[in-house]
Specification:
Elements lengths: L3 E7 L8 H8 L4 E2 L3 E2 L5 H10 L3 H4 L19 H6 L5 E6 L15 E4 L10 H14 L5 H10 L3 H19 L9 H13 L7 E7 L12 H10 L5 H31 L6 E6 L5 E2 L5 E2 L6 H4 L3 E4 L18 E2 L3 H9 L13 E6 L13 H11 L3 E6 L2 E6 L4 E7 L7 H22 L6 H5 L2
Parallel strand pairs: 1-6, 1-7, 3-11, 4-5, 4-6
Antiparallel strand pairs: 2-10, 7-10, 8-9, 12-13, 13-14, 14-15
Helix pairs in contact: 1-10, 6-7, 8-10
Length: 457
């Protein structure tokens, strides 16, 4: 039997805030899977892992100390799409996320449908840096008019005009398109329904959708870069800002849940849901003030790495719920490609084999260069020294540890069972991290700084 394959990534949705979505979808025979780990705390590395079945250390689409957003790109082969090309008549990408797009390397789709309620920044990266430098020089509370006049006076007339047009477009997005409340889910899910129920709906299709509703911003006026800087500096976060973020986050989860539910109801009414493998997950979570942090990227906290995974199997497939078989085991989103392959081969009963005693996640440091324009060079270098380290999180049985590869030591160890890991457990975790690094660096044919010297010690 051939069937449609739909994967929806609810960007930035953490597991502990997905209860409403899980409860809603279970009514439509979705199975919720526990202990699912994202391989990275931000978008591009995780999506590259989903499409390749490889960890970031191997596929290479991640930040470095020198390369950060918007210059991080995926340059590998889209193995998931290559596999599904044989099974589906057409492959679609529906995206509200500018990073989930062929321009950042996610290629291999027959058609890309994008919907960005907030327009692209009309300014080039150099012009953005110029504006941010000017803001820093004049003070962040400088009026828009004074900023434009200063930029014009310095001879950057084109930049000033583009900045003015950009501001007008953003006002239109806020007032008319209701951004940031509406980030495109209603439009993209309607397109998804049209694709699955169109005139050639007898031919199976693959649709990958990224929905941005849960992602910041949560208000039109917030400056996430400044909040991130406070977070990295270790400053106390503003209570009012945190309250707005938490309220906005819950509101957006509720909103996108309603939109997905409406899609499911329509597909069921049109007898399409039973002919579809439907997967709903997330690429990473979001910090909402825990540990004095806000946003995502850089860190390897559970709030960023534990994500939901819900699957509705096509008719004639008996739903597989390995809940009794995953004690002390973990499922990585890296294995989503293998999961789909098992179902295509008619072997969903083997799905529990994807749960392993361990799973990994990686951070290579600060993933975006946005904050650099707000900082003096010395402070930027200090923050880089603190956070631009290659770290690997290992989930092993009931334990989790974060290994700083640059320092060659565990910097955080915790137990989900509230017991203290003994020396044997720590030695085993270190051994598995070393094995992970050796395998990843061998496949990628690169050497990780200090890695071989330490591993020989």
């Amino acid at each position: 039997m051939r069937f449609n394959i739909v994967i929806i990534v609810v960007d930035t949705l953490r597991k502990d805030y997905a209860n409403n979505l899980e409860t809603t979808l279970k009514k439509y025979n979705f199975v919720s899977y526990a202990n699912v780990i994202a391989p990275s705390p931000w978008t591009i590395p995780t999506h590259a892992s989903i499409f390749t079945g490889l960890y970031p250390i191997t596929h290479g689409a991640h930040e470095t100390s020198d390369i950060k957003m918007p210059y991080v790109m995926f340059r590998g082969e889209n193995l998931l799409n290559k596999m599904l090309k044989k099974e589906c008549s057409k492959l679609y990408l529906l995206t509200a996320n500018p990073l989930v797009h062929p321009r950042y390397g996610l290629k291999g789709f027959d058609r890309v449908i994008e919907h960005f309620p907030l327009p692209f920044n009309l300014l080039s990266p150099k012009e953005v840096d110029l504006v941010k430098f000017t803001r820093r020089k004049l003070g962040y509370e400088v009026s828009r008019l004074r900023l434009l006049l200063h930029i014009t006076k310095k001879g950057h007339i084109t930049t000033a005009i583009k900045l003015l047009i950009d501001k007008m477009l953003r006002i239109y997005s806020f007032k008319v398109k209701r951004y940031p409340y509406n980030k495109g889910a209603s439009v993209l899910l309607r397109k998804l329904e049209e694709i699955l129920t169109g005139h050639n709906n007898g031919n199976p299709k693959f649709v990958f959708a990224n929905l941005m509703e849960v992602h910041e911003p949560y208000t039109p006026s917030e400056n996430a870069a400044l909040m991130t800087i406070d977070s990295l500096r270790g400053n106390s976060l503003d209570y009012e800002t945190l309250s707005v973020w938490k309220t906005g986050y819950v509101r957006q989860v509720r909103y996108v849940t309603e939109k997905i539910l409406k899609l499911i109801e329509n597909l069921e009414a049109k007898n399409v849901l039973s002919k579809t493998l439907f997967i709903v997950t997330s690429d990473h979570g979001q910090m909402l003030g825990e540990y004095g942090k806000i946003g995502h990227g850089t860190f390897l906290y559970d709030e960023l790495l534990l994500v939901p995974l819900l699957i509705r199997y096509p008719e004639s497939f008996e739903p597989v719920d390995p809940v009794n078989e995953i004690d002390e085991k973990w499922l990585s989103l890296v294995d989503l490609k293998r999961l789909v392959k098992l179902i295509l081969r008619g072997e969903p009963r083997k799905l529990p084999s994807l749960y392993k005693k361990m799973a990994f996640a990686e951070s290579y440091g600060i993933h975006t260069a946005t904050i650099r324009s707000y900082l003096e060079p010395d402070e930027w270098r200090n923050i880089q020294r603190l956070y631009d380290n290659y770290r690997v999180a290992i989930y092993y049985k009931t334990y989790k540890a974060i290994f700083n590869v640059n320092k060659w030591e565990f910097t955080e160890i915790k137990s989900f069972a509230h017991d203290k890991p003994d020396e044997e457990v720590l030695a085993r975790m270190k051994k598995e991290v070393v094995r992970f690094l050796q395998k990843g660096s061998l496949l990628r044919k690169v050497k990780i700084r200090n890695f071989y010297n330490h591993s020989m010690a």
